[in-house]
Structure formats: C-alpha cells, structure tokens
Write a structure and sequence with these properties.
- It is a single chain.
- The chain is mainly alpha-helical and 141 residues long.
- The chain has one domain: Arc Repressor Mutant, subunit A (Orthogonal Bundle).
- 58% of the residues lie in helices and 7% in strands.
- It has a three-stranded antiparallel β-sheet with strand order 1-3-2.
- A hairpin with a 4-residue loop joins strand 2 and strand 3.
- Helix 2 packs across helix 4 and helix 2 packs across helix 6.
- The protein is globular and about 50 Å long.
- 24% of the residues are buried.
Length: 141
C-alpha cells in the first residue's frame, strides 16, 4: 500500500483518477452501458476531491467553485478516448477502448478511498458510546 503513496507520478493524473473513481462509484453497468448524468459525476468528484484533499498537493483541485477544471478534465479524457459523452442527455460513460488506461488511472486514488472506507468501518465497529451520533462520526473521522 505504501508504494501507492510514494509513487511520484500520482499528482499528474490525480484529478483524472478522482473522476474515474467517481464514475465507477455508480456501478459497472451504469458506468459502461447506461451512462451517468454529468452533474452527478461532478457532485461525486467534488466529494472525493474534498475527502482526499490532504493526500496530494495540487495546483488545481476539483471543487464546486471550480467547474471549469472539471469540464477541462472531461474534455481531455474524451479526447484520449477514455470516456464518451452522450450529447442528447449529457451523460458520461466509460469506453472499452480505454480500459487499461482507466484501470491505471483509477488505481491512483482507489487504494486511498478504500483505506478511508475500511478505516471508517473499523472505527464505527469500535464505537461503544451511544452519545456519539453515527451521522457525525464519519465527518469527525
């Protein structure tokens, strides 16, 4: 796991990795076949970017006030044939031609997201005090 954190190339594709992980969070069938609404991907990417804000030092980060960066990333990924945008309903779907690239890019952030998730579940299992609200605990962690 520490190899992921020491990888010097992480910051180069960190934002793209957040987008890929956000798309995959909707499920494989939705991401590959049906497509996901553009705004929903942006919303989840903002959440993941906020969650991982301390993991990498970046010049620009995906956030609600910086939608231009997100639009630029989506355009770049579309040009690289990693994902496709359906102009009719403005939905995003992954392309099979870029599957190896998607796996590589997603592997940058996925171990960090997975670690946060496992840590949260473990910490929740240790909470014995009933005066702590379960809804506030993940935010505090």
């Amino acid at each position: 796991m520490l190899g992921y954190y020491r990888n010097p190339i992480n910051f180069v594709f960190f934002n793209e990795s957040i987008v890929v992980c956000a798309i995959n969070s909707f499920g494989a069938e939705q991401a590959w076949k049906n497509g996901i609404p553009y705004e929903d991907v942006f919303s989840r990417a903002c959440y993941l970017s906020e969650l991982l804000k301390r993991e990498e030092v970046l010049k620009e980060r995906i956030k609600p006030g910086n939608k231009q960066l997100f639009d630029k990333l989506i355009s770049f990924m579309q040009e690289q044939r990693i994902l496709a945008i359906n102009p009719e309903n403005k939905s995003i779907s992954l392309k099979g031609t870029g599957e190896a690239t998607l796996l590589f890019i997603g592997s940058i952030c996925w171990p960090m997201i997975d670690t946060y998730y496992v840590t949260l579940l473990f910490a929740l299992s240790m909470v014995k005090q009933k005066n702590i609200l379960d809804s506030n605990f993940p935010k505090d962690v």
